[in-house]
Request: fold
Amino acid sequence: MRLFLPLFLTIYAVMNAYVLRKLYLLWPGHKGYLWGLILLVLVLGGAPFLVRSIGQAQWGSFGRILSAAGSIWMALLFWLFCMGVALDVWNLGIQLLAGPVPAAGRWALAARTATLASMVVVAIVALYSLHEASSVRLKELHLKTPRLPAGSPSIRIVQIADLHLSLTLGERMLSKVATLIEQAHPDLIALTGDAVDIPFERSRLLAPQLARLKAPLGKFAVTGNHEYYVGLKNGLEFFDAAGFLTLRGESSPAGDHLLVAGVDDPRGSELGGAAVVTDDHALPAQKGERFVIFLKHRPLVGEGALGRFDLQLSGHTHGGQIFPFSIVVWLMNRYGPGMHELADGSHLYVSRGAGTWGPPMRFLAPPEVTLIVLEPG
Reply:
């Protein structure tokens, strides 16, 4: 983890320099244009690192604008970099092919043409991704279980994952999420971490929207890694203000047929916090008559936990959030978004989450609030 920040900053600096050079090729030889680009890239590229201090200083609208501009630039930078590299590879291939086949040289793209094409494609993708990120929807699944007595009513479980309430994602997004949850008529609500990215003095203004939600079998939460980044005390205070019982290596019955267990995110112990992350602290030694729901922020499944829970609810990955970055996320995680049937009768559901981290954008990873309907069978 110590190498992560220097490595990230190095890659980020290289990407900014590469895209700056590509943009300069639109109008080469003009010093005023070059210095304007350098200033723009320095401001937008540095904005993400200023956001935290701006937020803490509570600079109001300026902080929100800077936060949005910096985070959107991160997405634009990533796409422009990917497009630039792809077109450079194309031109290199044409150049190699033009040796034995001279006629192939006509398919090479001029630097200015390639950059303009990249900008048009990225602009279209960016506009769509802003729309996709704001279009949170209710995703419904049905799961049959013999742990519900035959003829008993189904149980409606709503999972909320990765809200990431922040300077740029706040009241409007949360209002949509709360409306979807109300329409789902849940019996139980599970919040699987990464709810807040801002201190409690700001997030407490949003808590009433979740506090008003009713679920007769209870509202349960576990910490994600971002609860530790913003400060564990802040995260726990938000959960409490929103009416959730936080499970930290423990379990709680929910009605006659359910047992809900949960653990802290392991990032807490890495940061020296008092995190409870081992499954043994939370799960029963073996399944009883109750259907066991296991809340765990990251989609990690311990071999010793299999058969001790019926359904694990996780999030964290956002489904990759932005393609093609999602390819990296898929390679780093064994379980992608959706329902997975595991060994010993256990299941895992990985949510794409409702909010966003960094850019308030999603591309080919639509946000969701998940409704899982347990049915006897």
User: Anything to note?
Assistant: The mean pLDDT is 91. The first helix runs from residue 4 to 24.
